[in-house]
Write a structure and sequence with these properties.
about 130 residues; Nucleotidyltransferase, domain 5; two-stranded parallel ribbon; 6 helices
């Protein structure tokens, strides 16, 4: 069994919230619970988050859309290249998270214990 971690980090790359999904689900399923109740100026994401409903929700919130687009998108959206460079912070967070063997190998048997390992690893990552 595989598990996806969909995470929301702040502007410093520190974990704010995350959602666990089955490995066969689309990443966009986890976006709504992540951004619910949070105010932010921009959402940075990769092609997996290029969905019309996400773009519409961000526009309704007044947030900047900084998501690279799939080649099949009919109407291309402008992407701020300078802001998009900061997407490496979320990638760095995942690289640091995978340094913890129990997270990288998904050694925990339940989602509850796997979530607990991520909650334990996040403050250690932030304190470095």
């Amino acid at each position: 069994m595989t598990t996806k971690i969909v995470a929301l980090t702040d502007a410093l790359g520190d974990l704010v919230r995350f959602v666990l999904l089955p490995g066969h689900r689309f990443d966009t399923i986890g976006v709504a619970p992540l951004i619910e109740g949070h105010e932010f100026g921009a959402l940075l994401g990769d092609k997996a988050y290029d969905s019309n409903w996400i773009v519409e929700d961000l526009n309704r919130r007044g947030a900047k859309v900084v998501i690279s687009q799939r080649p099949a998108r009919a109407l291309k959206l402008p992407v701020d290249a300078e802001v998009y460079k900061w997407r490496h912070l979320i990638e760095n967070f995942f690289c640091k998270l995978k340094e913890f063997k129990r997270v990288a190998m998904r050694a925990c048997k339940t989602d509850h214990s796997f979530s607990a390992m991520i909650y334990l690893a996040a403050p250690i990552i932030n304190s470095r």
